[in-house]
Amino acid sequence: MNSNATRTRNRAVVLTGLGIALLVAVFLSPFASQNPDGLDRVSEDLKFSDKAAEEPPAQKLPFYQVFDEYALRGVPEQLATPIAGLVGTLATFGLAWGLGKLAVRGSDERQNHESE
Amino acid sequence: MVDVFSLTCSLYPLQWVAPHLALHIPDGFLSLPVMGVTWVAAIALIAICLNKAQAEYQDRTVPLMGVCAAFIFAAQMINFPIPGGTSGHLLGGTLAGILLGPWAGSLVMSVVFMVQSFLFQDGGITVMGANIFNMGLIGTFLGYYLFRGIRQAIGRNKLAGMVTGAAIAAWVSVMVAAIATALQLAISGTVALQVAMVGMVGWHTLIGIGEALITVATVSFIWRTRPDLFYRPPQAATSSLRRSLSTR
């Protein structure tokens, strides 16, 4: 297969996939249900939600100065969650790509040799 | 639209009161031994995945790992309401397994939980081992192999096999994740086993249906557009692809 065509195809997958993820994170996140979710609800019903640490270690990280859960600090509410979604999605994308690059040391050349 | 917008704004304050947890366990819910065991299990499986990734995958999988992680992170932000005043969201482990296989799928899920915990205080750092195990690895391993068995039984090259396997595996993985979480909470002495089990299994029976729907929708979309991307693609995918791609 033409390697240029392959590259174009794969770029299309990345752009489409990342695009969909960003659309979801930015435009759907404000409409997410605010109801307590599974474990949250159970911990309230069964009265053990107060066992959650009041000052969890994550609040000592510098990121806590920037994000209060899925909300960017210091911007209007309507923007806080979409921006958090945008940053989180891009960070996840980049880290998973990076980890993949470190973990997968094979190459497409190897695959080409196999198919020859 | 204006109504929805103002409604959203008026709902925002609730977010501060009731943080997103889903199945995300916060710091403080688990005892030291339970944290230790789940950390060891998670790290051991991730180590195996790192080894297997090196042996089994090629460079072209790497961008797909980024995309899959981004999508699952984004999808996990979207809590869908379920009857009874609760909500749930996609876990995504089974989806990651179907797309990338259990090895790269597990790595992707681990990244998602790390970002959520470190950046957004969603899911405790001390209990991240448990969260990675429950919401990630149960899906990428149990979910994936269950999917694979069902798909094989129905027909590897049939959409029906893919969809049936994905739906059942997604639902089962959520149920098992809920059971695992209830067990961990009970062993930690946080709550009595029986009530925890009833509550967790009860709500997640419904949340699992959401998981199955989103997983099936995504898998079907990939089947229609780029079936060659699957970890174990249908045999027809590669040959038909060449024709369709030249026009793209």
What's the CATH class of chain B, please? Mainly Alpha
Average pLDDT reading of chain A: 89
Q: What percentage of the residues of chain A does DSSP assign to strands (E)?
A: under 5%
Q: What sequence of helices (H) and strands (E) makes up the elements of chain B?
A: HHHEEHHHHH
Largest sheet of chain B: 2 strands, antiparallel
Task: Record keyword descriptors for this entry.
heterodimer, A: 116 residues, 63% helix, 0% strand, B: mainly alpha, Arp2/3 complex 21 kDa subunit ARPC3, two-stranded antiparallel sheet, globular
Can you characterise this structure?
The complex is a heterodimer of chains A (about 120) and B (about 250). By secondary structure, chain A is an all-alpha fold. Chain A has one domain. Chain A has helices at about 5-30, 40-45, 65, 75-105, 110-115. The radius of gyration of chain A is 21 Å and the shape is elongated. Mean pLDDT of chain A is about 90; it is low at about 110-115. By secondary structure, chain B is mainly alpha-helical. Chain B has one domain (about 30-230): Arp2/3 complex 21 kDa subunit ARPC3, CATH 1.10.1760.20. Helix content of chain B is about 75%, strand content about 0%. Chain B has eight helices and two strands; from the N terminus they run H-H-H-E-E-H-H-H-H-H. In chain B, strands 1-2 form a two-stranded antiparallel ribbon. In chain B, helix 5 (about 130-155) packs antiparallel against helix 6 (about 160-185). The two termini of chain B are about 35 Å apart. Chains A and B meet through helix 1, helix 2, helix 4 and helix 5 of A and helix 1, helix 2, helix 3, strand 1 and strand 2 of B.
